[in-house]
Specification:
Elements (H helix, E strand, L loop, with lengths): L17 H8 L3 H32 L9 E4 L4 E2 L2 E2 L1 H15 L6 E4 L10 H12 L6 E4 L5 H15 L3 E5 L5 H10 L3 E4 L11 H21 L7
Parallel strand pairs: 1-4, 1-6, 4-5, 6-7
Antiparallel strand pairs: 2-3
């Protein structure tokens, strides 16, 4: 009778048992896990910006107008008291929301850049008053050279007045980051971005704005800092 002991062993060309040779070719466990970890890191590095970019794009298309304590207009460049086209588009949209009864107050935001005589907030307030908003209904928060500094200041103004909710008016692609910063400073924020002005005129401008805001949002979430101005 032939037993397992009597069965001939299959040997390769080097005279070694085939099963042993197969075992020797298996990758070390540490190398397998390193490869898996590298795959996860690469996948996250690629997918995260894509997901955030989609969120920037999606938020830009929202237009929320619930009854709120105030409309918050984020500042942009101004020239000796005259709002830039970007800023003017935001201010006109905020005034339209005010006239529609979305909120009884408008908050303009923004400090001075180097060499300026007038703050963005003051320029915005004066423009809104010229449009027809009562001066008593426009609050100028003249602090901040970027979105984060300004939202911190607005959060303080909200606490002083006992306000909770706000509709943020800015460029469409800026909405996601602005809302996040407002919420982090105690404001129940939604956005109603402007649909006019230079920020929405061309697809090339829109694409570059989405890329920039994707980086700005990730920078803020990861480091708690503002990378871009308003």
């Amino acid at each position: 009778m032939v037993t397992d002991m009597d069965e001939p062993q299959i040997r390769d060309a080097d005279g070694e048992d085939a099963p042993r040779r197969r075992r020797r070719r298996r990758l070390p466990r540490w190398l397998v896990w390193t490869g898996r970890l590298l795959f996860v890191v690469v996948a996250v590095s690629v997918l995260t910006p894509l997901v955030v970019g989609w969120r920037v794009w999606y938020e830009a298309r929202q237009d929320d107008r619930p009854r709120s304590d105030a409309i918050i207009v984020l500042g942009a460049a101004q020239y000796d008291g005259r709002p830039s086209p970007y800023f003017e588009a935001r201010l006109r949209h905020a005034y339209s929301l005010y006239r529609d009864g979305v909120a009884p107050k408008i908050v303009t935001v923004g400090g001075k850049q180097e060499g300026d005589r007038v703050t963005e907030a003051a320029a915005g307030r004066a423009f809104l008053v010229r449009l027809g908003a009562p001066a008593a209904d426009v609050v100028a928060v003249e602090t901040g050279r970027d979105t984060l500094q300004s939202m911190i200041a607005v959060g303080g103004a909200y606490r002083e007045r006992g306000w909770d909710s706000g509709v943020v008016v800015t460029d469409p692609w800026h909405s996601l980051r602005s809302n996040k910063m407002a919420q982090d400073n105690g404001i129940e924020a939604v956005s109603s971005p402007t649909r006019s002005g230079p920020s929405v005129r061309t697809r090339d401008t829109q694409f570059h704005s989405i890329v920039r805001e994707t980086g700005g949002y990730l920078y803020y979430v990861l480091l708690g800092r503002s990378r871009h101005t308003m």
